[in-house]
Amino acid sequence: MTAATTPKGERRRAALVEAAAKLLVEGGFDAVRHRAVAERAGLPLASTTYYFDSLEDLVTAAVEHHSNAELAAGRRRLEELATRNRGVQATVDLVLEMLLGPETDDPEADAEAVLLRYERLVATGRRPYLRPLMRTLSAQLDELLTEIFARSGTPVTDADLERLVALVDGAVVNALIAIDPAPRAAASRMLQNALDGT
Asked: 38 by DSSP, 3-state: which?
């Protein structure tokens, strides 16, 4: 048994991953640095290179941790949905939570969080080492979204889902370009209109 697989080692590694995930969400990939992660986790700088072979390994673990936490939260919310139609707005809210992250009470902070999320998504494309993980996570998200629509009484095909996600992405990007203070609201309107058939 190595030190990395002892209970203490596992706790330290988990603390580093959690710290890296928080830094990633707050500041994007550039925020995830060995020193910053160690300081956030309250651990020695050397621990980042002890538990991870490279910064890429640490970033990959952080992305996976954060994405899995969001998927788990989405699955819990899905269990709250009845198998009957809960109304378009309830579906829209849950779908947007999965695509844009949980909504905050502060509209300015929420818009900033959405912007940071899209910056991370675009930056992921410049990191080939993340592609296998992102394909897996994307497939899991698509499965969850498909189930959300089905349980909400609005079943969708793979093509429908691709179109609806693209609609949300387009609405958000257009709102961010226009410096719209409410990109989530723009996406909500577009998605609701699409589901209403208008």
From this structure: helix
Pull the structure tokens for residue 162.
Answer: 């691709």
Q: Identify the burial level of 11 via C-beta atoms within 10 angstroms of its C-beta, where 0-12 means exposed, 13-18 middle and 19 or more buried.
A: exposed
* pLDDT tens figures, 132-149: 999 999 999 999 999 999
How far is the CA of 180 from the CAs of 35, 133, 174, 186, in angstroms?
Answer: 35, 32, 8, 8
Q: Quick check: 66 and 25 in contact, CB under 8 A?
A: yes
* Distance, C-alpha 154 to centroid of its chain: 23
To the question of pTM greater than 0.85 for the whole model, the response is: yes
Q: Which residues have C-beta within 8 Å of that of residue 18, sequence separation ≥ 6? A: 41, 65
Q: What is the DSSP letter of 6?
A: S
